[in-house]
């Protein structure tokens, strides 16, 4: 039986850096580990690549020969790998006792709307591999509510389609304060008790330039508006006044908004006084200022509802310099589940 990880996530989320750091970490604890690059377009590999799909096929060659674009060429490469899967098995057999890290390309269609990767994983499992999916999401998205909602939905779809135990990681957490203001403490983005709480932030993103100017002009008048971050903190407070995981988030103030007064700047003062309205879909949609906002409020509400209904998604924060051990521990626990699943299957 072999153990390993399937590393996925959008481009720029830090997959290669994660693979490199994990390879170094395993080396320090004396655990044999290899990294398999399954991105046919990756020509800037940071880690020691033991098996590389470019030995079999490259994206550049496919695009030139078949006149395909990057995404179409990538799908072709995955299909080609699947048809020549014995090549991968033969290479893996050269490392019989090694922990295996599979570094995939970041295009989301590989995991959300195409079954080549899931078919590949099924064949690896048939060869005795017990795998865990590690999905990386850039913490930059926390400062962009509409993007974070989209990334959350994509992560959920990937988890379901991969049919693997999954660990979702919020990467580059050490840079989060440099990306811009965020609406909640870090605990909210990792635990995701209710994704719909981000909908106020989406409204700001959907404002037209005129509306945005009006909102900025009214910030001083609306400083007493309901503060969703405070509400969230009160919901999590324990009887002794401390939030769960305070020992893990002593510096949570660094992850809070630098200015909370403008959080609901796009609402009328009378509406924002009752922040609980965000929990009512009809009321939330009705309060839109423009047809454009009304249309997209409905859309984003439905996206949040899908993620909430599954109740599967949470994230581990990762600073690659100090927090890797915690992620590894969570993955090891997932491997135990994967082992039990294989024994029962």
UniProtKB/TrEMBL annotation:
The keyword Ribonucleoprotein does not apply. One of its GO terms (molecular function) is GTP binding. One of its GO terms (cellular component) is cytoplasm. Keywords: GTP-binding, Hydrolase, Nucleotide-binding. Pfam families: ATP_bind_1. It comes from the Eukaryota. Residues 231-248 have a biased composition (Basic and acidic residues). InterPro entries: Gpn (IPR004130), Gpn2 (IPR030231), P-loop_NTPase (IPR027417). Residues 208-257 are annotated as: Disordered. PANTHER family: GPN-LOOP GTPASE 2, XPA-BINDING PROTEIN 1-RELATED. Belongs to the GPN-loop GTPase family. Small GTPase required for proper localization of RNA polymerase II and III (RNAPII and RNAPIII). May act at an RNAP assembly step prior to nuclear import. Binds to RNA polymerase II (RNAPII). This is GPN-loop GTPase 2. It comes from Blastocystis hominis.
């Amino acid at each position: 039986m072999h153990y390993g990880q399937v590393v996925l996530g959008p481009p720029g989320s830090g997959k290669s850096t994660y693979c490199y750091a994990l390879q170094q970490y395993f080396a320090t604890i004396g655990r044999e580990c290899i990294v398999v690059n399954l991105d046919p377009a990756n020509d800037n590999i940071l880690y020691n690549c033991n098996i590389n799909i470019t030995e079999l096929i490259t994206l550049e060659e496919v695009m030139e020969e078949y006149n395909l674009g990057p995404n179409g060429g990538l799908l072709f490469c995955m299909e080609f790998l699947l048809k020549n899967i014995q090549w991968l098995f033969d290479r893996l057999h050269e490392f019989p006792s090694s922990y295996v890290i599979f570094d995939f390309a970041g295009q989301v269609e590989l995991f959300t709307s195409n079954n080549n990767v899931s078919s590949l994983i099924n064949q690896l499992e048939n060869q005795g591999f017990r795998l865990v999916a590690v999905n990386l999401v850039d913490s930059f998205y926390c400062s962009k509510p509409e993007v974070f909602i989209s990334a959350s939905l994509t992560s959920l779809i990937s988890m379901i389609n991969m049919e693997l135990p999954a660990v979702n990681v919020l990467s580059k957490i050490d840079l989060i304060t440099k990306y811009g203001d965020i609406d909640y403490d870090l605990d909210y983005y990792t635990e995701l008790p209710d994704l719909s709480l981000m909908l106020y932030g989406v409204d700001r993103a959907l404002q037209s330039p005129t509306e945005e100017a009006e909102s900025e002009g009214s910030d001083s008048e609306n400083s007493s508006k309901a503060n969703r971050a405070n509400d969230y903190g009160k919901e999590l407070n324990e009887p002794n006044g401390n939030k769960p995981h305070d020992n893990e988030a002593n510096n949570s103030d660094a992850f809070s908004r630098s200015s909370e007064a403008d959080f609901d700047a796009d609402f009328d003062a009378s509406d924002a006084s009752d922040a609980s309205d965000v929990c009512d879909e009809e009321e939330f949609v009705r309060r839109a200022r423009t047809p454009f906002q009304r249309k997209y409020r409905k859309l984003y509400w439905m996206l949040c509802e899908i993620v909430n209904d599954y109740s599967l998604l949470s994230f581990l924060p990762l600073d690659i310099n100090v927090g890797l051990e915690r992620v590894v521990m969570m993955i090891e626990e997932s491997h135990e589940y994967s082992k039990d699943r294989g024994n029962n299957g």
